[in-house]
Specification:
Part of the 50S ribosomal subunit. Contacts protein L20. The protein is mostly beta strands and 106 residues long. It has one domain. The protein has no helices and 10 strands.
């Protein structure tokens, strides 16, 4: 069984037992969260697609850790103009363990 969930403005295809890193969620490590923005639920080859959400479908997740991704380096340069700019960015993330996928059966 799998589900397509939406969190942090992005969509993720998840199955029970998987670990995913999503945009930072304000929650403590070890806390269980229920994600109710489920866009699709599938069992094998059958799938239920919501319009836009599947009514009654939820995904229970556990927060494993909070952290920051590796640094992304931004380098801007204008040739012959003596302009160079270096900048770095580290995005925050929350690592989740997917638990129970409940709701509309496909």
């Amino acid at each position: 069984m799998y589900a397509v969930i939406k969190t942090g403005g992005k969509q993720y295809k998840v199955a029970t037992g998987e670990k995913i890193k999503v945009e930072q969620i304000a929650a403590d490590v070890g806390q269980e969260i229920v994600i109710d923005q489920v866009l699709a639920v599938g069992i094998g080859s059958s799938i239920t697609v919501g319009t836009p959400l599947v009514l009654g479908a939820t995904v229970t997740v556990t927060v494993l850790s909070q952290g920051r991704h590796d640094k992304v380096t931004i380098f801007k340069m204008r040739r012959r103009k003596h302009y160079q700019k270096r900048q770095g960015h580290r995005q925050n993330y929350t690592e989740l363990q997917i638990g129970v996928i409940a709701g509309a059966a496909a």
